[in-house]
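pasting Transferrin receptor protein 1 for the record, 776 residues
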Amino acid sequence: MDHARVAISNLFGGEPKSYTRFSIARQMDGDNSHVEMNLSADDEEGGETGRPEHLHTSMPPPWRIDKNRCFLIITAVLLLLIGFLIGYLSYRGRMQKDSRCLDGSGKCEMTPTASYLVDDNEAAEEVPGPPVLYWPDLRKLLSDKLSTSHLENSLRLRASKYSCEAGQSEDESLAMYIHEQFERFSLDEVWNDEHYIKLQVKGSSDNIVSTLKDGKEEELERPSAYVAYSKSGSVSGKPVHMNYGLKADFQKIKNLDISLNETIIIFRAGKITLAEKVANAKEAGAVGALMYLDPYDYRNAEGLVPFGHAHLGTGDPFTPGFPSFNHTQFPPVESSGLPRIAVQTISSQALVKLFSKMDGERCPLDWKSEIFGCKVMPSSTSNFTVKLSVNNVMVDRKILNIFGAIKGFEEPDRYVVIGAQRDSWGPGAAKAGVGTAILLELARVISDMVKKDGYKPRRSIIFASWSAGEYGAVGATEWLEGYSATLHARAFTYINLDAAVLGVNHMKISASPLLYTLLERTLKGVKDPVEESKSLYDRVGSDWVKTVVPLGLDNAAFPVLTYSGIPVVSFGFYNKGEEYAFLGTTQDTLDNLKKIDKLYALMRAAAEVAGQIALRLTHDHELFLDFERYDEELLAFQEKILPYYNDVKELGLTLNWLFFARGDFQRATDSLRNDISNSDRENRIIRRALNDRIMKVEYDFLSPYISPKDAPFRHIFFGKGSHTLQSLLENLQLLRTSRDSVDVNMLKEQLALATWTIKGAASALVGDIWNTDNEF
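structre below
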């Protein structure tokens, strides 16, 4: 009826929609006459009900009044029916299409109303007029346009490169090439983002690892690689093998009453990042650290020495929390994540020589190491030590991030970002070449869909090529820091393409829970390049969420999620039980990468997954972010801490407030879902407001009670620090294993801050302030 009323109103020249005591008709033909209608005579002072106080002297006869009344009634009924039909047809048409005529040509693009609750393959109702790009059509169009030959040509750029180190000539020339390609693809906007940063590089003299015994020094190796942000200088200490360098590994050694002060810790690559291993070694009192590729985890790794960085953080460690723009000047400051101990990587061959000179206990069998003669540490009476000399130097460099954008036609200020690392210490075929090739192919294909096939995304798509990724996502982090005040309100997803193909047998996925549903549907719609009769969803299995891998500090998606509160997804193909040995080494060449069976088909499949995610997020009326997934995450956390309920109660505390906050969040998601279900998706203002509430879900899990400068990774689920739910759980576990070591005041603070962060997220999700309260 509202539509009918609007149609009738328009038919009569646009009268006011609201009812007033008097309705003044619009002046017609320039005369000064007007009609005044008394709607309620009994309201008039001094008047009698149903009888006007004054009548016109020339009142027409009764029969004429009856005739006029009949005519008016018939006319009103006909106009009402016509208006109803106009309103109904208009409403029905808008429910099937979003018509927008372009550049006066009369050509209109129509996109159906869509929600992620609708089945992707559900048949759409036919609508007369120009062809409609429904989601199944759009998905097929993307798949048809993706080309393995284009991917191969782009990847071939890495064939002749020995190194593409950040800020050097090779990196800059590749940046200019990407910029030119974005312009050739006719992207709406192409621009560069400059940053001036401090990097640590290998000095003019080699780093050296040697052994000392009975006053005699013997050189073990002069590695070709180095570890950025290591402490420079020479250190010596007894070597102690610490397996993977996990906290649990350190705890096992400490339980043997072995002091780790002034030691040099040896650990194998894998499980956690090098920076985390080094931080654990520093905390234990070590003066140095060595890392190698164990043949058990990395096949064909003999003689390989990996590069790496030891900064427990991301971005430029000398402008922590601030962007490194050329016009910004900050007082000298260093990140607390710098290791301040000497760190170097060595080959497994050098480590075999080291162990051959050591006496002491052999490595445990459950370590499953394939290093010949592996030993934990020298005997207590031995004077055998290891000397580590690091000669790295600091340099100032300019780096470039390259961006290209396809602007949305409805909400250009809302965007999904697709990014890939460009730089590499070695040739970087797998580390950076694959992602860069996929980035260029997606930019080409999606731009072609917009320019030639009439696709008009509602929201924008930004393609980003990052530099200095090898040093800890420096380029990406500096960009986030530079626009931290607005990015969380504009960017609703980041898709990471780095190292997308490292094998063929399995898939590794890291993602925000908000993207689980979209990722699952996407995998169902992409063919497995190895077994073409199946989809990628068949490869990962129905319980794939249980295998989701936490994001590492080396992943550019990590700061996007934990610093900026933007949902992310990072995925790739790999061989289960066998890491890609050449990653991050001078042997990460195109020839070695091509040994992966069906390499280009796998790259195309990765491009199709990333492309479908980006298109779906910019195509539908409703943002395809499943905010209700965090209900499950909070419930899973509640189940983990529930066993400690009585332990907490003995301290005079309670977990109830935290449980109530979880209940509040669940009710808030129910409220938002009801608001979405009961809203008119054709109303752009309402739809934008609802999508903004969906976009804020991830950001609201950044703890507001800590400084982003002191603890930048503030996400309570995926961040780093005492504010995280994982840190709270670990403190609760100590109540059982080491009660005396529990800081009760810290535990109180963790419970309070976690409770109010979740409660705040619930209140923000509800929307209007009058719908919130401070009661549990």
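The mean pLDDT is 86.
The longest helix spans residues 62-96.
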